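Handout, section B. The chain below has 1017 residues.
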Amino acid sequence: MIPQLNHTPGQTDVTRNFLQHLVTQGFAGDIGQHYADRLSMATDNSIYQNLPDAILFPKSLADIVMITQLAATDEYRDLTFTPRGGGTGTNGQSLTHGVVVDLSRHMNNILEFNAEEGWVRVEAGVVKDQLNAWLKPHGFFFAPELSTSNRATIGGMVSTDASGQGSLVYGKTSDHVLGACAVLLSGEVIHTCPLTTEQALTRSQGVTQEAAIYGEVLISCQDNYALIEEKFPKLNRFLTGYDLRHVFSQEEQRFDLTRILCGAEGSLAFIAEVKLNVLPLPKVRQLINIKYDSFDSALRNAPFLVEAKALSVETIDSTVLNLAREDIVWHSVSELITDVEGHTMQGINLVEFAGNDLSQVEQQVSALCHQLEELRASGQAGVIGYQCCRELEQVERIYAMRKKAVGLLGNAKGRAKPIPFVEDTAVPPEHLADYITQFRAILDSHKLSYGMFGHVDAGVLHVRPALDMTLPEHHQLMLTLSDQIAELTRAYGGLLWGEHGKGYRSAYSADFFGPELYHQLRRIKTAFDPDNRLNPGKICQPLDNTSPLLPIDSPTRGSFDRQIPVVVRESWRGAVDCNGNGLCFNFDANSPMCPSMKVTRDRVHSPKGRATLVREWLRLLSEQNFNPQSLDDTSSLSLRSLSQKVKNSWRARQGEYDFSHEVKESMNGCLACKACATQCPIKIDVPEFRARFLELYHTRYLRPVSDHIVANIEPLLPVMAKAPKLVNYLLSQPWVNQLSRRSVGMVDLPPLSYPTLQRQLSGHPAMTTTLEDLQAMTDAEREHYVVVVQDPFTSFYEATLVHDLIQLISLLGYRPVLLPFVPNGKPQQVKGFLKQFARTARKSAEILNRVATLNLPMVGTDPALVLCYRDEYKMLGNERGSFNVQLAHEWLATAVLSLQEPTQANGEWYLFAHCTEVTALPSSTQQWKTLFSQFGATLHTINAGCCGMAGTYGHEARNLDNSRKIFGLSWELQLANKPLERCLATGFSCRSQVKRFGGEKIKHPLQALLQMVREHQ
């Protein structure tokens, strides 16, 4: 039995009183003060971990003003505050032990747009890709490009002055910010915009804090103008935090306080709204993918490529390329980055051209290709080949792979993982190759592996050495390398922070700025935040403040993970390996990962959040000397253990604290869709460790009745199917539904199929042919037989679909055989009945392996159940055997090949693929499209997220509201303008959800194929 975990860090009394005071004043936003809430904000995409005291989620500018005005009172002057956006920072920019103010959950509205003047006004929590998706129909885009653009907020981009691909042309975020609405910690609201020096001087007159700020910044910039011009490096990725060089122009007599806020990392004010300039979308984009025999060749060839007047030149080394080959993303780019016969590709450069004149862009591409061909033919510059991407869709696929590079590095094999701590240095581009040569020499001297990618046109390279931060010696090596790379970068006239802000690496600021200019930064900090309460420890301290900056040697995630025994870390790698890249925060409702995060906007309900909670749960168990591997038989029951469970559960209902309950609440929200297991670059498989957690949790606490019903649904269904009319009559009674909701926690239970599958197939050869009959046949006699493997959902709730599959197999000239129903075990696995699942899986595998000896294709219909054989059955090890159950499209792809030319047109269809299928088998939708095309039909694959049903998730009363909302995020919208009779879904749960909330049940694609085969014949 797992121990009770009730000794978790609590809030300070001051923070608790502050939160209560906020509520009484009418704070409209959310407040996160549970340990789970705080843990979800304790990490970002860096190596560091810092537990905040509370999290505030304001809903409006008024909420931010309320926070700051209350914080300004004497009672709460010791509290500190840190703004937070997408949490994608690689340097711990938004980590704090104080109060986090998260603007991403609610303040994500696009407020105003002016196409004529080319600007948009947005709240700080708007995500970069969200903004560009909104602007696209208007023909505009917000230019600064990031690899994290699908979860990075505009406020975060402003705070770090973010930039990325294309910065030579488009610049950094600060180059596009026309003004900001910011809130000072005093509660004063300021609005910044470009001014003349005279206007800025006028604003400096008065007694407000804003006036004092204008006066201080203006004087500092004027008095030190020559020093600033001399000291600030003339790089595309210029120095951020605080950017004195671009605030004031002596020649133009121009002053813009906005440039101080850009890159300040929330250390000066809360940025609530920003006004951004937007650019017309280029009409033409083409890309050349150039392949090299070495990464050094790729780096040294970059200046030549920049001279071709490209929009951008990006580079990727072989480490990243090889990791991409092992990821789901590779299927989308494999034909665009083919190998070169006789050569090993050690690096690539991606050169993009963009513009509005197709002929001009094509001329640029052709000219460069001609030069590249000469280099390749003569064996110069290391060029071994190149490919052109002339379609926008191809270009975007390449960049999708490039954007995933950050996460892919975290999926390197072994305990040492490439990590960020010296990973966005910037040097003059002409020195980059030599700089990287010395950089690599330093890493090689420590015998480290590493991955590299970046923006060679701007002299920025992302380098991530592989370290195991749970080892004290590697923690020390991280410090040594930080110092060595900082010194090397200074020697090349570069910056340690070329792109991702300073955060914990602010410790190097004084050396880079020099004492005089660093003093000016402290003066500015004093004007904005004299008591050092806004994101303290970052950028610099106010004058007369002795608080040190946060050291490089601050607590890391590895230092906490170190407290978990190695054997436990290895066993729970699915949770421990999460590197915080945050791809699971993707704003796009049509992306499959992660539906619970999308609908709640609560990071506790994300793969990263769940992994974080499980890591801490394991650490707390270790503190109590409990090894979760030591529980031998969690399924055994005794009167004593049952009595203890009853007592523990009663105490839990009375409010007795156990951190395990917070972890359980997070796990309850998981739909077990498994999109994270493939879409996450690190392959964080939440359903896998969720099932293990549930098994352990319920050694201490009773399971809900619904869990037992779900876990035993497979053996129950054949019994229920003996009297389907009676079962369906009872399910249709309102009092039964009410009883089910109250006592069992289940709602909207589906009716059983009637007539049953056995009745529909009565007398059919598929029912009468047995396994023994097949075994008695010769190989030649068995040649055209196909075995249909049943699953509980389609066989007992949607028998017509199995019947139609058998009809389709017959019409295609094959002989179907219906294998007697054998429980799969998936419901047991989902609910954490792992020992029962193992027994079920062994029995099923034994039967399926017997069939496999006959060398007959085995076909199933439901993706979740069929893919369970390939995934969850791995836990059986060698006992699993070698059987292979195919999904319908996988078998049909070979069976229908004989139909070469369609005899008639069959119109347009719309496919909504099951989220588990589309993520685990990314080629499945293309296979369905090919099948339909063979009958003259056009199949459109619809980009939709999760339907919200996910097996039994949508039938659990506690999930009903979220299930409906998830359906509304994408499926409902995508179905709204399409004829339902032409819409198809591969998942049983998806079809059930459409019927529940849409009123009609849509078909499986094989049923549409059956219709077309009948017409074809």
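Note. The domain at 286-411 is CATH 3.30.70.2190 (Alpha-Beta Plaits). Compare this with the example in section A.
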